[in-house]
Design goal:
- By secondary structure, this protein is of the alpha+beta class.
- It folds into three domains: 2-67; 71-117; 119-176, Head domain of nucleotide exchange factor GrpE (Nucleotide Exchange Factor Grpe, Chain A, domain 2, Roll), CATH 2.30.22.
- 60% of the residues lie in helices and 19% in strands.
- It has helices spanning 2-23, 27-69, 72-90, 96-116; strands at 119-122, 134-141, 149-154, 156-159, 162-165, 167-173.
- The chain has a three-stranded antiparallel sheet with strand order 1-4-5. It has a three-stranded mixed sheet with strand order 2-6-3, with no helix packed on it.
- Helix 3 packs antiparallel against helix 4.
- The longest helix has 43 residues, at 27-69.
- The protein is elongated.
């Protein structure tokens, strides 16, 4: 019996080896699988690239729209100011006092529009001269500390702390 069992043991490994070889995909099948995975990866890459381009394009459109319509709120406020000025000019029979009162109200509308849009007035009278906020037109000998604003010829304006127009000023200098 021992002789009969040995041949069976020898045959079993050969059968398993043949089964293992048969269950492994052939080189052609491995190539097909690899090509399929490569095609799937390429398709996913193309989709990701297209999505990236779409995001870039939408962001550029948003930037363009933001630039075009950034002053929309401010423009709406200025329309009311323009309407007030036109109404003042439309009336033929106004006294100087009525006209002055209308202009003062219109100025209040304009100041309110500036405030809503964070457009701040720079009126630096008696402040220390700051070349980032002020433009000195001349210097005049004066009592007190030198390099201070003693006269404002034209107010300046800042939008969100960025100078739109520096104030035109006359600055003091020490007496000789």
């Amino acid at each position: 019996m021992s002789q009969e069992q040995e041949p069976q043991i020898n045959e079993t490994p050969q059968t398993e080896a043949h089964a293992a070889v048969d269950s492994m995909p052939s080189i052609e099948e491995q190539l097909k699988i690899a090509e399929q995975k490569a095609a799937e990866s390429h398709d996913a890459w193309l989709r990701a690239k297209a999505e990236g381009e779409n995001i870039r394009r939408r962001a550029q459109e948003d930037i363009t729209k933001a630039g075009k319509f950034a002053v929309e709120k401010f423009a709406g406020e200025l329309i009311a100011v323009k309407d007030s000025l036109e109404a003042a000019l439309a009336s033929d029979k106004q006294s100087a006092e009525d006209l002055k009162a209308g202009v003062e109200l219109t100025l209040k509308q304009l100041v309110a529009a500036f405030e809503k849009s964070a457009l701040l007035e720079i009126n630096p009278l008696e402040d220390k001269f700051d070349p980032h906020k002020h433009q000195a037109i001349s210097q005049v000998e004066a009592d007190g500390e030198p390099n201070r604003v003693i006269n404002v010829l034209q107010k300046g304006y800042a939008l969100h702390e960025r100078i739109i127009r520096p104030a035109l000023v006359i600055v003091s200098k020490a007496k000789s």
